[in-house]
C-alpha cells in the first residue's frame, strides 16, 4: 500500500541534526512536510529549518515553542527524539543522584515539557501526532551498562501510553517507537569505548553485548533510515487508527511477547 503523503504538514524533530533524528527529518521532508529541527548546536549543513535549544532547560524549551509559533503557527507532527545514554555503567552503586536526574531530564522530562507546551494548539485544531523515540532498553535493562537510561525509557513508555489514552478523543495520536541497536555515531562510539575498556575488538564487544540480550536474530544493527521509514508510516494518514502502541524496531532482539 502506498503511504498517503504528509505534504504541507509542519513537523518538529528534536535532536534532528544527526543519527535517527536526521534520518526522520530527511524522510518527512522528502514526503512533503515542512520540517523544523532542534539541537543544542547548529550543524555545518542542514536542509531544514533549525532552532537551537537545550530541551533539558525549561526556558530554552519555551523559547523554541514560541519561535515555532511565530514562524509557522504551530506544528502538526512532533517527534520527541532527543535523548541518549549519558551515565556510567557498573550498576546501582556507580550512579549518583545527579546521574539519575541527568538521565531523567534528558530522556523523560524534556519530552513531557515540550508536549505540554505544544499540545494546546494540537488539541485546538483537533489533529496532531506525537511520536516518542524510546528504546528496547525500556523493556530490557542491562544493569551493568544502562540502568538509569533504561529506567528513564521505561518511564517514557508509560507516560506515552497514558497520554495517548487521554488524547484519543481529541484528535491527537501518541505513539512510541523503540529502536534496538542502531548504527549511529553514538552507538559506534559506545561500542568502541566498551571494547577499549575490555581490551577487545569492537566486533567482539558487539557480540558480548548482544549475548546479554539474546542476540539479534536478523544478525545486524538497524540503519537510521529504517527507523525513519516506520516513523513516516506512523505519522501518515495511513496510520490514522493507531495510538498508544509501542513499536519495537530491533531485528527481533526482544525475547518477550508484547
TrEMBL record:
Gene3D superfamilies: NAD(P)-binding Rossmann-like Domain. InterPro entries: NAD(P)-bd_dom_sf, Sc_DH/Rdtase_CS, SDR_fam. Keywords: Oxidoreductase. It holds the Pfam family adh_short_C2. It comes from the Bacteria. PROSITE patterns: ADH_SHORT. Transmembrane segments: none annotated. The keyword Heme does not apply. One of its GO terms (molecular function) is oxidoreductase activity, acting on the CH-OH group of donors, NAD or NADP as acceptor. Belongs to the short-chain dehydrogenases/reductases (SDR) family. NCBIfam families: PRK06523.1. This is SDR family oxidoreductase. It comes from Mucilaginibacter terrenus. The lineage of its organism: Bacteria, Pseudomonadati, Bacteroidota, Sphingobacteriia, Sphingobacteriales.
